[in-house]
Every structure is written in structure tokens, then in C-alpha cells.
Amino acid sequence: MKWPFCMKIGQVMLKGVMITIFSFFLFEKTLFAVYSEDAEKLDLFKEEALMEFQENLIAEEKTQEQRQLDSTVALDALDSLNAKSETVPQSGQETITKEEIELLKRKLLGVQKKDLFEFGVDGDYSYTTNVNGAVPRKEKGDSQWNSTANTQINLSGKKTDIRFELRGTKNWNLKQSINDSWQVEERLRSRRRFFKKTNVSMNSRIARNNSKTLEIDNNRIRYDLSNQATINYAFTPKISLNADLSGQKTVFLQEAFDQDSTWQVSMAPSGFWNLTPKSRISFGYTFGASRGRVESGDTNTHNIRIGYFGQVTKKSSASLDFSVNKSLPQSTDGSTSTSINTGLGYTWQMTPKVQMTFQYTRGLTNTTSESQGDPTDDATVTRTDTYAVNDNFSISFNHRLAQKISLSLTGGASHTRTVTLIDANKDSETRQFTFPFTFGATYVLTRWMRFNFRYNFSFRTGDEKSDTSRVHTYSSSMSMSF
Asked: pTM for this structure?
């Protein structure tokens, strides 16, 4: 498939998504939406993947002259080693040459020597002026500390990547000590290639969380267990197929909370079609089941999604996503929910040191539930429909001020509108607007130590007076890895 034809496909998809988003604004009242979190959970088009793609894109823009210069430097360095080895006595010639050549290869190729043990320590402090989201002039502030220590054992080889990690986290607050908690967990991650075209990765996690509670004279203890396996098969040079299986379980052993125990499983086949080396289409389906001790929360979920990801210009890339989700209750008192999520992400390398990222998501959901007052009287059945619309917009700038200092600036806006109908009659309507702003700075002192400073401001307003609030958050953190 030729590049001009692929570019036309990308342009047609981009126009189609923009028309869809525009139509959502025109016909908002006739569509259905989700309770706002689903749109946010898109992670705004998998920002990490978009950033990684953009970095690789910029790296590939090296001119041919620069590549030739790199090759010339490498050859000159190898010639220097050979000349040096000729001056070394014959008995020590082979050992010195191999060591220095291996060191040179790691420097030229950017390959870091793997350490068997890795240690890390993180700590952060933050002060929030309005921890409870109260209205202006009734705010109450609080300070919070977090500390984390982790140890990783890297047993990776040439064909297998396997890592085991132990992590401990402690959180405590100055005034609201009821929010204090601590957690310990272990993670096991592995990845291996089979038969040249098949990659298999498996991950497991077991965690214990202790948090304070007013319900009993003791800590609330929760165990989280999760397992995940992914199989990737390169069907053709341009098409790859994936299969993802995962399961999570949350267990409360204490009698006061054992009804909160739940488990979830999911199965997600998906695929990628690489239109060009710099663009691809993704598609997939997910089936999920959620069960608990209390049957009222049991649901089955079906999700279909499609997305486009690729280069727009030499220094920019974009991602488009569209998904439909259907949640079906498995109990008589549950609710049926249908949601549509759309999104657009765009990253532009404005200058060698300044990068701009634009993100927009919209989620629409319709949730329907029925309740019966008198089980013997069908006329007492009440139908409740909830329509919600959530829009999220953000734009951010990242600037590398110096080799060790980078700055980030992010601003955005979100809008949520919820309408509730009881037996087709309008019962209530609410609307909220939120305007967040964030400024951050990172200072890399050494390869193993860095400092982060962040300021966040958020203003929220809505139809009700109680919806208005403003929050200032100041935070600083330090991380070390050995």
C-alpha cells in the first residue's frame, strides 16, 4: 500500500471523527452518555503510547549526514582501539581489547548493563488548601506525606525478561489521620518470544492494604490479587493479533467488610494493522464479568473499540479512538448502561526543546434501572433513566529548559451534564464546569536522583451553590534509584 493512499485514509478517518464530535455538540440532548469517569479512564488516548511514538518519530528525523557522522565516529573509535591493542603485550592483548570494545558498544548503542538488584526510594509532601471540596471561605487545608521503598531483582536473559519486585508504601496526614494507610505488594513480570513471531508476557501482583476506619476499633485490611497474560502473534508483516486475559480479586477477611469482596475477569482479543511504518489502526473486543458477595453489583460488560494512531507531519502525531460499551446487570435490582466514548489526541514537537500535546474526550451514557415498591403490584414499577455527558479538554506544553531541568504547563476544562427522568418525566438536571491548571518542574541532579515540584489549581462551579469550590495544591517529591 502506497504512502499517499494511506495518508488519504488517515485524512478521511480524521474528518469522520471530527464530524462525529461536532454532531455530538449539535445533538447533545438526543444522545446518551456515561457517568463522567469512563471518558477520563481512556487515559486521554493512552498518553504514554502517544508520547513514546512521538519521541521515536523525532529520533527518526536524523539526517543522513548525521548518521554517517555517527558511523564515522564509531569506526574511528574502533580503529583507535585496534591501534592501542597493538601496543599492548601479546599476553594481555585479547582481554583488554574485548573489554574496551564491549564498553564502546554499550556507549554507541545506548545499551545499559543490567543490574541484578535495583533499589529505589521515593518521598513526597503535598499541601492541599481544600481537602473536602468545600465552598469558598469554608475551606480546610491539610498536609500529606507519602514514602515508598522498592527492591527489584532482574533475572532477565537474552530471550527472557523476568523481574521480581517488592514495594512498600506509607501514607499519613497531619489533620485527617483517618485517611492514613500503608501497603505492601509484590510484582512478578515476565516476557518471552516463542517461534520468532509470538510474544508472551505474564504479570502477577499481590498486595495488602491497611487503612483506618471508624466502623471497627482496628485497621481495615484489604488484599488485592491480580494476574494478567498477553499473547501477541505477528500474523503478517503488517497485521498482528493479540489476546489478553486478566483476573482481579479483592478480599476482605474481616467479618465487618467481607460483603465488599469482589472479583473480575476479562477477555480481550484485539489486533493492529500497520498501514505504514508510521501509522496503524487498532481494533478489539472485550468481555468482562464482575461479581461480588452481594449480587446487586453483578454485571457483564461488552466493549467494542477502534482507533487510529500515526504521523500527521514530520514533527507531529495523532490518535483517534471510538468505543461502545454495554453493561448488563446479572441481578434483578441492577441497571443497564450503554456508553459511547470518543477521543482525539495530538502531539507536536514545536521546537527541539518544546512539545505541545492536545487532548479531547467525550463520553455519553444512558443508565436505566427499574424498582418495584410492591412485588405483587406491577403498576408500582418505577423506571429511572439517567443521561450524562462528559467533555474533557486539555492542552500542555513541555519545555526542556536545560540538560537537567524540564518544565511542564497544563491547562484544561471539563463539562458534565446529567439529566434524570422518572417514568419519562424530567426529575432533575445538573451541570458542572471544572477548570484545572498545573505547573511542574523536574530537576535531575544525577542519574539516580531527581526532584519534582508541582503546583495545581482547580476551580469548579455548577448549577448549585454547593458545586462551587477552588483548590490549591503544592507538592514536592524526591526519587532515588540505585
From this structure: 0.76
